[in-house]
Amino acid sequence: MAKLALSLAVVCALSTAPGFAQSWPEGKDSDRFDAGQGDLEIAFLGHGSLVLLYKGSYIYVDPVSQYANFSKYPKADLILVTHEHGDHLDAGAIAVLSKNGTRIILPEASRQKLGKGEALGHNHTVEAAGVRVMAVPAYNVTPNRTGYHPKDRKDNGYVITAGSLRIYIAGDTEPIPEMANLDPIDITFLPMNQPYTMTPEQAAASARVIKPKILYPYHFGSTDTAALQKLLAANPEIEVRIRNLQ
Length: 246
Fold this sequence. Notes:
The protein has 5 helices and 14 strands. By secondary structure, the chain is an alpha/beta fold.
């Protein structure tokens, strides 16, 4: 019981109330977190598109014009792309968000398709925009789904370290063995869009391996997020947060 109380206290200390949605264009919601060296704010743009604000730097993940009008948003200091599919790699959105000095980090296959940026291989790290970014694998493992995100294309998920926080943005993946090798994760985003990524059962199993304090299902389309909440009801140490990330 004491261990459970401590775990819940850690979650409460980590997170603050969802905040300042009015500060983001188009009324996008955001959550704010104490990163020990300042606040980290994560805004939920839709699907797989996110923006992180840390120490005045704007870090976009898979910005796609379908989910936000990026002409209304601050320019990017760093753009992370997980893979080459059109709902994750949007050259037009990247162009609108880019300024002198914007760094674009992506897998090699995506770099070749975009024609620019810096390829980051699995388990390699880069420091940019005040954070450390490590690329990790993302791929399908279920028979007859491996063509969606093949292992040999070497798509990326990312582990972002901002101050004392470690955020795992999984990209398009299913449960993979590499998830067991992640160091402690505070916040994770797991995809749950059928048939391309995880089922609720797979997402719950992945969460139990990763053990984040806060889990956001994202890129979930019409998959039932309530099913994930129910599956993790016996794991109160993992807070499941549902945001507008269909």
